[in-house]
């Protein structure tokens, strides 16, 4: 059988072991990168090797292999990493967290109750549960709610990215530190007077948000619990219309214009936002950081952003109509707000200062 986990897949020695080539089995005295991979897999599952992943199969590794085989009911439980040991380890790391850096990342991330990992997504899929919209975001029109749920499902896929199974992950999770926003856009070629009007309304929303933040400042320092509670109350305050209803009206008008004209409205997503929480090989302009899906007039799947991942390319190819921030808690409850993470966090009851401290 072929190995599936990113840790083991493609390693010539481990692949030979998986095919039951007994001459490749790992025993006392074995050396090499393949030994180091197995050592890391054991260590990360809690089977200690005090000297660490040295790449040398000595007494400590022998003891860890015996302990692992005993715990998993593998026989014989001798200090040999053969076909049963390697294929069982491979299944444990096949998904999610096949990438060791990803696994390590989630061990130290702050704000745990709002870290919806790919492991959580795997559990959600196995249980058959769907994402649930926070009742405080019930104002969100259905086309945009469905588009957000579609994107989260694709971007958090434990088996790969929207490009296919085993492709490098599009995101390591939805959290206040990663995969927490999208841009509502149309192609620049389609911008006309009506769409320019929507952009003007978005700027007015920004002004209203700035006013509410100044009001919240009277309750306490920005981002603290008192400030968050005050800002949340202002976001939810009734009006003619209130803030969230103004956002709903704008999105409904955008969807109606899209239906009438056939102009596609898209959500553009940026993942791996903070360098501390992304793969070491990914820079700010890496293609793995940008994705999109059409929400109206006809909903579409998530695809990769087809242009360079730069601010210049973004401005040249799409016009932003609104920003939406998305906060997902460990239960899969999704809170959505315009325009920034600050508003979504406030609705979700998350203090902005906790996010600032974490970043």
TrEMBL record:
Lineage per the UniProt record: Bacteria, Bacillati, Actinomycetota, Actinomycetes, Pseudonocardiales
InterPro entries: PGBD-like_sf, PGBDSf
Protein name, entry field: Peptidoglycan-binding protein
SUPFAM superfamilies membership: PGBD-like
